[in-house]
Amino acid sequence: MKTISALSIVVLFALLFCSQPASAVGSNSTLTSESTGEANTPQEKRLQNINQAKDQKEQLKEKRCEMLTNRLENRVQTYTAHREQRVAEYARIRERLGQVNQVFNKYGCTSPTVTEDLNTFDSLVKEFSNTYQTFVQTLEQTRTQACSENTAAYASTAKRTQEQLRLVREKAAQIRNFYTRSMRLHINTARSECKATQETDKPATQSSNLIKSQPIKEAQ
């Protein structure tokens, strides 16, 4: 009888120390799954695939945003340089035309028409410069909105940018047409009249050399 009781006690202790509840086993299995990042169930696998797809989509969006921003930044720099070059070119032409008018005045061949043309030329160049500056500012605004969630605002700004560029080209065409179709004709007329009133054609020769400036180009 004592032998049976002792054996029962040994078996009882063995069961207590060696067995493990089923809930504990399940908990360890869950921890292992979470720690390794692996999905054991179909639902977990689907969730994992969805998260991976979202991450890839976000990375692609950021990459496209960076490319678009860089491209627009390059355009801003390019058009800014074009504006500076064009305004400088107009300034050189204006200087030469002013020298022509000074030659006329020196020899008493003052031409109010040429003087008025110079003022008109200055006004046209100023309008061109301001319009071009507005275009560059609008283009810069487009760059800042490139990655915005408000696609409607970006599209509206991009449309205004194109419209502003069209205005820039119109202003450049106005300067070119005024110079070639009006101003040069008036200078040639004033030179001919000055030549007719002078004993020598020296003033006409000097003014003729001075007006040989480079043709006015179209806006880029």
Attribute tags:
mainly alpha; rod-shaped; 6 helices; 220 residues
Description:
With 220 residues, the protein is an all-alpha fold. 85% of the residues lie in helices and 0% in strands. It is built from six helices and no strands. The protein has helices at residues 2-18, 22-36, 42-106, 112-144, 151-197, 202-210.
Helix and strand topology:
Blueprint: H1 2-18, H2 22-36, H3 42-106, H4 112-144, H5 151-197, H6 202-210
Total number of beta strands: 0
Strand residue content:
under 5%
End-to-end CA span = 112 Å
Structural class: mainly alpha
Q: Give the number of helices.
A: 6
What sequence of helices (H) and strands (E) makes up the elements? HHHHHH
Radius of gyration over all CA atoms, rounded: 41 Å
Concise synopsis of the structure shown:
By secondary structure, the protein is mostly helical.
